[in-house]
Write a sequence for this structure.
């Protein structure tokens, strides 16, 4: 079976600036695929090329088996898109927005009433069709935007930072909706910079400065793509410990994780004695120091370095 999305050396340049640089990946049908990277890494530019909104400088891409340059109309029939910024009309009601997008996506009249009811139920907005969209809280707006994107029952749903700025409870509820869509057979392509959301994806690709720096399942990435080992240190006060650790040679990365500090280095267990001595000399009280499996965030920082 053809993959839902395939890119091969996909590149986009704007004058002398290369926004996407030789990106190659594939997304299995029915998978939840996470496309991760910081702001400005090339995520949105890649999506715009997949949807036929930008022409690549070089390379190729297909969505649902259709070429992203020559067959954009076919892609738009088969893909739903939710943009990074809220894209519905705040001065229209919930129902009016769905009516508009139903016409935009070409949902047949004979099918529209059923699809509209299904979307309202999925989003938990039954009975609120006459409410102005601008009056909805952020989490409800995101649900409505997702509903508008799937009115035409697309094979592939492409979501660009769908939970940015949304509270944690609404983020979790939104992801429950995505699970339901994936269980129904849709392919989910989602960009995010939240590592907890990345853990919920079946396949991932990390992009940084336009290039793919890691890919695979979350387990594969954490098991095989980490440079160095991770030492987790319980200590206080951390504001004293951090500059002490950053002053030690041979430590690649030092970062605060809640009330603990993660140190990344080669053969980090061998360096524990000198780390402990340096912290004690600075008056830092040290508890457990454990070599732990890396998190996705650890791997991402490591790959960037």
């Amino acid at each position: 079976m053809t993959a839902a999305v395939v890119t091969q050396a996909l590149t986009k340049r704007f004058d002398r600036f290369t926004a996407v640089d030789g990106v190659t990946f594939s997304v299995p049908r029915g998978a939840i695929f996470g496309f991760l990277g910081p702001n400005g890494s090339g995520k949105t530019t890649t999506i715009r090329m997949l949807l036929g909104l930008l022409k690549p400088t070089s390379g190729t891409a297909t969505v649902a088996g259709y070429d992203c340059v020559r067959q954009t109309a076919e892609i738009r029939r088969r893909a739903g898109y939710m943009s990074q910024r809220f894209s519905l009309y705040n001065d229209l009601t919930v129902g009016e927005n769905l009516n508009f997008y139903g016409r935009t996506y070409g949902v047949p009249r004979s099918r529209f009433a059923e699809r509209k009811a299904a979307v309202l139920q999925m989003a938990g907005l039954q009975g609120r069709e006459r409410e102005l969209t601008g009056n909805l809280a952020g989490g409800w707006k995101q649900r409505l935007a997702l509903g508008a994107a799937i009115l035409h029952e697309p094979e592939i749903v492409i979501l660009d930072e769908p939970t940015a700025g949304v509270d944690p409870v609404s983020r979790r509820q939104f992801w429950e909706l995505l699970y339901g869509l994936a269980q129904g057979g849709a392919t989910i392509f989602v960009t995010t910079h939240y590592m907890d959301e990345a853990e919920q994806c079946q396949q991932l690709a990390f992009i940084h400065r336009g290039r793919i720096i890691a890919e695979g399942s979350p387990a594969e990435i954490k098991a095989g793509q980490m440079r160095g080992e991770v030492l987790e240190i319980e200590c206080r006060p951390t504001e004293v410990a951090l500059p002490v650790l950053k002053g030690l040679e041979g430590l690649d990365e030092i970062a605060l994780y809640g009330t603990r500090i993660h140190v990344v280095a080669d053969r980090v267990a061998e360096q524990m004695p000198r780390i402990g001595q340096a912290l004690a000399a600075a008056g830092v009280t040290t508890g457990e120091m454990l070599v732990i499996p890396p998190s996705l965030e650890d791997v991402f920082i490591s790959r960037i370095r």
In short: Residues 168-183 form the longest helix (16 residues).
